[in-house]
Write a structure and sequence with these properties.
Blueprint: H1 11-17, H2 19-32, H3 39-52, E1 56-60, H4 63-72, E2 81-85, H5 91-98, E3 102-106, H6 117-123, E4 128-134, H7 143-153, E5 156-160, E6 168-170, E7 176-178, E8 185-189, E9 203-207, H8 210-220, E10 224-226, E11 229-230, H9 241-272, E12 279-280, E13 295-299, H10 304-313, E14 337-338, H11 343-347, E15 352-355, H12 363-377
Parallel strand pairs: 2-3, 2-4, 3-14, 4-5, 5-8
Antiparallel strand pairs: 1-9, 6-7, 8-9, 10-11, 12-13, 13-15
Helix pairs in contact: 2-9, 3-9, 4-5, 9-12
Length: about 375
């Protein structure tokens, strides 16, 4: 088994399973010569709208651009505050800071890794204009109370949905919505390791608001309302036609990819549950499905780094997402604000460990990973 290569993410294996469809789409684009804003881009926007239920999909160059453009569309002013979770990748807070707004950090729940309404509410001030929630690792934040809070306070809500496309949220009345379709704007990344990933960089913004959709489209295209007529300051952020051609194929398989990840996660959990003295398994909330962009455990008793090293000795990769809370990052610690303690955002970086998770993961691979983890603790 040691001779079998285990990967954190197996992009090559995923490509090989759909190689003919991908190659045909890429070759068709190359032969067409329409490398910028070709038909595949508008087709993908339509297909993603149909998949998610979002009224408008505006493709762009990457997920960070999507966050920046979303913030630019909301007419907030330098110095205004934007709440972001501190246990998170830097992109959301970085986009806030780049535009001259003030990132205000919210703590997270230690079991779902997502921020919640109480932690957001404690971070709100009279200067708060936007809340960015991040649906981390594949599971949706508890949106119903967050939506109500933002409506009551007149605060914009942006969903960073880079890791959780395809997850489904259940409201108390029994209705269901896809992740990224509940806030004012949602942002997506199609980075290759995402559940829906292209062969480079790619992103999109989703909204149900007609006016916001128009503005987002203009900002992403140099502020143009029509060609060479620039009504507002914008930027240049486009999804390449080649990437859209790849995404059009992969979107057809997304539900299958999600099911594969859910099955792999269930297998991990079933076979690691006996180690509850040593590790905490990912928690599935009652209001959201989980699409497992990552399968992230918490390692107790300060043994995370030792376990990670032990796995590496057996040629098993693992990743730490994320090793430092955002309010402790050098780039942000002097410009961000915290109004409450960041207990879990500071604790989790020393405990979390993401195990291999991808669509090509087999029970044979998982059995070896599980056996090595068991060997370490027992």
């Amino acid at each position: 088994m040691n001779a079998i290569k285990i990967q954190q993410v197996d992009l090559t294996g995923q490509y090989q399973a759909i190689q003919q469809e991908i190659d045909e789409n890429i070759l068709r684009v190359v032969r067409s010569g329409r490398y910028i804003n070709g038909m595949d881009v508008s087709d993908f926007a339509l297909h993603l709208s149909q998949y998610t239920g979002a009224k408008h999909v505006i493709p762009c160059a990457n997920g960070t651009d999507a966050l920046q453009i979303a913030l630019m569309s909301l007419d907030i002013q330098p110095g205004d505050e934007v709440i972001v979770p501190s246990f998170n990748y830097i992109a959301s807070a970085e986009a806030v800071a780049l535009l001259g707004f003030t990132p205000v950090m919210a703590d997270v729940d230690p079991f779902t890794f997502n921020t919640d309404v109480k932690k957001i509410e404690s971070a709100i001030s009279t200067q708060t204009r936007v809340v960015i929630v991040v649906h981390l690792f594949g599971q949706i934040c508890d949106m119903e109370p967050i939506l109500q809070l933002c409506r009551n306070k007149g605060i914009y809500l942006i969903e960073d949905n880079a890791q959780s496309i395809g997850a489904v949220y259940s409201f108390s009345d029994g209705s269901k919505r896809q992740s990224g379709t509940m806030g004012d704007i949602s942002t997506l990344s199609f980075f290759p390791t995402k559940n829906l990933g292209c062969f480079g960089d790619g992103g999109a913004m989703l909204t149900n608001d007609d006016e916001l959709a128009k503005k987002l489209s203009m900002i992403a295209s140099h502020g143009q309302s029509e060609r060479y007529k620039h009504d507002i300051i914008g930027c240049n952020s486009r999804l390449d036609t080649l990437q859209a051609a790849v995404l059009n194929v992969k979107l057809r398989y997304l539900d299958n990819y999600i099911l594969s990840r859910q099955q792999a996660a269930a297998y991990y959990s079933e076979n690691l549950r006996a180690l509850s003295e040593y590790i905490i398994l990912p928690e599935i909330s009652p209001y959201s499905t989980h699409v497992y962009n990552q399968y992230t455990i918490r390692v107790k008793n300060r043994q995370r780094d030792e376990l990670k090293f032990f796995l590496s000795q057996h040629n098993i990769p693992s990743m730490i997402y994320y090793p430092l809370a955002l309010h402790q990052q050098g780039a942000l610690k002097d410009i961000s604000r915290t109004r409450v303690d960041m207990t879990y955002s500071e604790q989790l970086p020393g405990e979390v460990l993401s195990l291999p998770m991808h669509t090509e993961l087999t029970p044979e691979h998982q059995n070896f990973i599980i056996s090595v983890i068991n060997k370490f603790f027992t």
